[in-house]
Each structure stands twice: as structure tokens, then as C-alpha cells.
């Protein structure tokens, strides 16, 4: 079974991972403190609603790409936090407000709108702290909010460049390997041509001359001390011709990578990747092994494009009648963006065609056990190796 290409099915929402869960728990805990710090039941009810709105705003802002809807959701979080500060000064309403400030620049497309939004929020935060504290020094909180927003943008840009560099390195490594294999194949073909044109022809000529000499020696009734070595030399020449031709044929065969090369592939991957092998290896043809190797390479490269920054798991399972290889990522991590490195759009189709040519199947799609994308390859084997 083959599903659609990865790029067409990329979600616009970031996966809910342990970092996001930690943030939710922390904000709820701070919200509970803020509710309890309110002076009367009515204020506690209002602050509780504000805390809930702040939490929902943060959850609604978890989009993989900047949008004004995500910016509005963060604005709700910040506004709710500022209102909670005013109603419950002894609480921790600053936490949702500052959390919103830290993600606001990431939710609004770059430009004047982002600058205006961050500036407005910083001023509002400083004025709110000044009103609650009764001191002009509270305005410095606005400077702190601006600094947090600015650092958030810088950190996001740094992570994006790092992730893009990893994706580009994966692409470059795959291209470099293909070029090396093409160059090695060309060199092997050159050596094969030289062996065929020089060595094989020379040995064939030697064999013909030895046979002619043997025929003359037999006609002249030469002694066995002469004809015996001639017979052995002619036999060696014939064997040399056959061995030279076999060597030429072997050189012309392409060098195929296989399942045993996956360890080096995963170990040399520029991102975070892990390989696990289970079962007893079976007999797998060179073409099938090469198809599996290429499928894993393409799947890992796709993961760096669309789940940039995610750890990649490669699981190789030898079964009695089949080899199963699964490559899985964990989706786009919180705070990360897709690398922006675009593929040709034919990688999954080419992978499927290569695997099907050796009698196997490819299954690709969202991982059924949680977040992320999974590509599983299955090829038949012919018993224990």
C-alpha cells in the first residue's frame, strides 16, 4: 500500500509533546495560585475564567506556520494574563502574559504588524505592572517583555538555520554518495575495458600461439618433455582467458549497498538518528538489499525536510519470510519550523517502484501510535543466511 507524499499531508499544527504538556501543567499551576490569591469569590471566578482563556489561547496558537489567527490566540492569552494581574495582584498572572509575549513574534508574520504587536504588548505589560505596584519602576517590566520577545525571535531564527543546515547536509550527503558511486562505477568500467582490450586479448592470442606450437610439435613427433609443458601452458592460457572475462564481467556489475550498510548510513547521519536490528538475517538478493538501503536513505532525508529537528528511528526486523524496515520520526518539535528544503516530489513514488521491482511493498503515512510519520518497507527473504 502506498499513500500520498509527505509534503501534501503535513499538518498545520505542531504535535503535542512532553514540552507542551509541561507548559500546560505549569500554566495551570500558576493559574491555580492566581485564583486562590484573589480577594473574594467573585474575583476568583473571573480570574479562573481568565486563566482558562489564557490556556486555550496558548493551545490555539500551536500552528506550524505564522498566521494572524495564531497571533489573535496569543493576544487572548496575554490579555487574560494582564487582566488576571489587575484582579489578583498577589497571584502569578505574569506567567501567562510573559508566555504569550515569548511566542507572539513566532505567531505573526515578520513585518510592521509584528513590531507593532510586540511594542503594544510591552507597553501594556509595563503599564499594568506600574499600576499594580504603584511605582514608575514597573515600566521596566515592559522593557523586559520586549527583550523576551526579541530573544524569542533570535532563538527561533537560530534553530531554523540549524535545522535547515541539517536538512541540507542530509541532501548533500545523499548527493555526494550518489556521485561517488557513479564515479566508482565509471572507474570500474574503465578498468574493465582496459582488461578486456589488453589482458584478455593478449591471453587469447597467447593461447592461440601455444596451440599452434603444440600442433607443430605433435607433427614433428617431439618428445613428451616438450609437448607436456606446452599442453600445461596452453591450459593455463585458456584458464586465464576465462578468468579475465569473469573479472571483466564482475567489474562491470554496479556496486550495490545493502542492509549491512545501514549502520554506517544511520551513524553518519547529520541529525539525531537511531538504528535497531532484531531477528536473524535471512538471504536477501543484492538488488533487494540495495532497494532497502535507498528507501531508508530517502525516508530519513524526507524526515529532515518535514519533521525538522525530530529524532529519527530506523527499525530493522528480520522475520522468517520477510524483512521489515520502518523509518519513523516524531513530528515537528514544538518551536521548530519545516526546513523549507523541498524535494522533487517523486521520492516516495520512486521508492515504491524500486521496492516493488524486488517483490516488496511500501506503506507510508502518519504513525498510528502517535505523532510523526512512518514509512515501512517489506521485502521477501529466502530463509536464514
TrEMBL record:
| Signal peptide stretch | none
Catalysed reaction(s) here are:
ATP + protein L-histidine = ADP + protein N-phospho-L-histidine
Main enzyme class? transferase
Q: Which Pfam family, an example, fits this chain?
A: HisKA_3
Q: Which InterPro entries match?
A: HATPase_C_sf, HATPase_dom, Sensor_HK_TwoCompSys, Sig_transdc_His_kin_sub3_dim/P
Membrane-spanning ranges = 20-39, 45-61, 68-87, 93-111, 123-149
Would the keyword Transmembrane helix turn up in this protein's UniProt record? yes
- Alphabetic keyword roster: ATP-binding, Kinase, Membrane, Nucleotide-binding, Phosphoprotein, Transferase, Transmembrane, Transmembrane helix, Two-component regulatory system
Q: What is this protein called?
A: histidine kinase
Q: What is its EC number?
A: 2.7.13.3
The molecular function terms of the Gene Ontology recorded here are: kinase activity
| PANTHER family membership | NITRATE/NITRITE SENSOR PROTEIN NARX-RELATED (PTHR24421), NITRATE_NITRITE SENSOR PROTEIN NARQ (PTHR24421:SF10)
UniProt key word Lipid metabolism: no
Amino acid at each position: 500500500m502506498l499513500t500520498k507524499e509527505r509534503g501534501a499531508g503535513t499538518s498545520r499544527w505542531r504535535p503535542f509533546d512532553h514540552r507542551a504538556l509541561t507548559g500546560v501543567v505549569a500554566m495551570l499551576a500558576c493559574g491555580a495560585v492566581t485564583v486562590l490569591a484573589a480577594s473574594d469569590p467573585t474575583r476568583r471566578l473571573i480570574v479562573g475564567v481568565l486563566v482558562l482563556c489564557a490556556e486555550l489561547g496558548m493551545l490555539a496558537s500551536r500552528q506550524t506556520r505564522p498566521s494572524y489567527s495564531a497571533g489573535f490566540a496569543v493576544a487572548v492569552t496575554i490579555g487574560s494574563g494582564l487582566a488576571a494581574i489587575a484582579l489578583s495582584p498577589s497571584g502569578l498572572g505574569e506567567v501567562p502574559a510573559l508566555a504569550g509575549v515569548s511566542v507572539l513574534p513566532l505567531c505573526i508574520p515578520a513585518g510592521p504588524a509584528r513590531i507593532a504587536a510586540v511594542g503594544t504588548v510591552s507597553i501594556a505589560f509595563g503599564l499594568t505592572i506600574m499600576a499594580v505596584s504603584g511605582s514608575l519602576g514597573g515600566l521596566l517590566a515592559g522593557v523586559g517583555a520586549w527583550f523576551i520577545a526579541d530573544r524569542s525571535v533570535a532563538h527561533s531564527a537560530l534553530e531554523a538555520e540549524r535545522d535547515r543546515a541539517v536538512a541540507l547536509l542530509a541532501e548533500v550527503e545523499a548527493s555526494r554518495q550518489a556521485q561517488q558511486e557513479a564515479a566508482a562505477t565509471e572507474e570500474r568500467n574503465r578498468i574493465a575495458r582496459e582488461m578486456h582490450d589488453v589482458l584478455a586479448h593478449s591471453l587469447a592470442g597467447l593461447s592461440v600461439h601455444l596451440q599452434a606450437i603444440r600442433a607443430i610439435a605433435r607433427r614433428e613427433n617431439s618428445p613428451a618433455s616438450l609437448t607436456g609443458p606446452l599442453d600445461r601452458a596452453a591450459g593455463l592460457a585458456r584458464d586465464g582467458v576465462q578468468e579475465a572475462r569473469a573479472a571483466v564481467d564482475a567489474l562491470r556489475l554496479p556496486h550495490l549497498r545493502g542492509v549491512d550498510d545501514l549502520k554506517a548510513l544511520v551513524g553518519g547521519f547529520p541529525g539525531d538518528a537511531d538504528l535497531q536490528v532484531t531477528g536473524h538475517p535471512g538471504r536477501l538478493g543484492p538488488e533487494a538489499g540495495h532497494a532497502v538501503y535507498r528507501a531508508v536513505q530517502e525516508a530519513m532525508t524526507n524526515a529532515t525536510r518535514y519533521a525538522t529537528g525530530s529524532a529519527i528511528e530506523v527499525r530493522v526486523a528480520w522475520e522468517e519470510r520477510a524483512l521489515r524496515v520502518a523509518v519513523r520520526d516524531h513530528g515537528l518539535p514544538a518551536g521548530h519550523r519545516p526546513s523549507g528544503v523541498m524535494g522533487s516530489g517523486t521520492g516516495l513514488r520512486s521508492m515504491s517502484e524500486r521496492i516493488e521491482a524486488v517483490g516488496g511493498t511500501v506503506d507510508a503515512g502518519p504513525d498510528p501510535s502517535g505523532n510523526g510519520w512512518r514509512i515501512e518497507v517489506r521485502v521477501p527473504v529466502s530463509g536464514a543466511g
